[in-house]
Structures are given as structure tokens and as C-alpha cells.
């Protein structure tokens, strides 16, 4: 059970971002296709970056009792894909929220 702690924390965090996304209709609830494409491309690019770093010996997977031990590739834990999805989703939501706020300010509406 302890081996699922990190993955569980990532999933809870992704769920929290989804709740914020739904509340403010920023990404998935504004345009789910564009958001899925954006997050998918981001995760794939970062996974390629990780694979390159592992192949060059720059990155290494450390043993940790909080991780599942499931690997996407040698030295690439499954949790990394969920972490990268969290990173990309969080970045997208912050960017969209700031863009919306700037648009409102430019229109004279001020913050909401």
C-alpha cells in the first residue's frame, strides 16, 4: 500500500486541478480537444527528454518505497508520466488564468 503513495498523491493533485479547471472553465471545460492535444504533446516531449537523459546517464531512478515499481521503460517509473501530466496541466491552467485576467484588465473589467 505504501508503494502507491506517490502515485496516489499525483492523482489527487490532478483531480484538484481538474476541479479548479471545471470551476473556472479554463482548459478541458473550455475546449477539451485542444487541451488533450496540448497536454499529450507536452507529456510526450518531456518523456522523450527523460529517456534521452537516462540514455546519456544524466538521470537515474532512485529506489523509493513510496513508488509502485512499475516502469514505462528501463529506469523510467510510471509515476513520471503522471508527474509530467501534472506539471503540464498546472502550467496550462496558470497560463490560461493569467491570460484571462489580463484580457479582463485590458477590457476595463478588472479582476473577478
What are its keywords?
112 residues, 65% helix, mainly alpha, two-stranded antiparallel ribbon, 3 helices
What can you see in these coordinates?
By secondary structure, the chain is mostly helical. It has one domain (2-106). Helices cover 65% and strands 4% of the residues. It contains three helices and two strands, in the order ααββα. A two-stranded antiparallel ribbon has the order 1-2. Strand 1 and strand 2 (76-77) form a beta hairpin.
Low-confidence stretches: none
Say what oligomer this is. single chain
> Given the helix and strand composition, which structural class is it?
mainly alpha
Largest sheet: 2 strands, antiparallel
* Amino-to-carboxy terminus distance: 43 Å
Spatially, the strands of the biggest sheet line up as: 1-2
Order of helices and strands: HHEEH
Give the count of helical stretches.
3
What percent of residues adopt helix (DSSP H or I)?
A: 55-70%
Overall mean pLDDT: 94
- Kindly state the number of beta strands: 2
Percent of sequence in beta strands: under 5%
How many distinct domains? Answer: 1
Protein name: Lycopene cyclase domain-containing protein
Subcellular location: Membrane
GO molecular function: intramolecular lyase activity; lycopene beta cyclase activity
Main location: membrane
Amino acid at each position: 500500500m505504501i508503494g502507491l503513495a506517490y502515485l496516489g498523491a499525483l492523482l489527487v493533485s490532478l483531480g484538484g486541478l481538474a476541479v479548479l479547471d471545471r470551476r473556472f472553465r479554463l482548459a478541458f471545460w473550455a475546449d477539451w480537444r485542444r487541451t488533450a492535444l496540448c497536454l499529450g504533446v507536452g507529456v510526450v516531449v518531456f518523456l522523450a527528454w527523460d529517456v534521452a537523459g537516462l540514455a546519456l546517464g544524466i538521470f537515474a531512478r532512485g529506489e523509493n518505497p513510496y513508488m509502485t515499481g512499475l516502469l514505462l521503460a528501463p529506469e523510467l517509473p510510471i509515476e513520471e508520466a503522471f508527474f509530467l501530466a501534472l506539471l503540464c496541466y498546472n502550467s496550462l491552467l496558470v497560463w490560461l488564468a493569467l491570460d484571462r485576467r489580463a484580457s479582463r484588465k485590458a477590457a476595463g473589467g478588472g479582476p473577478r
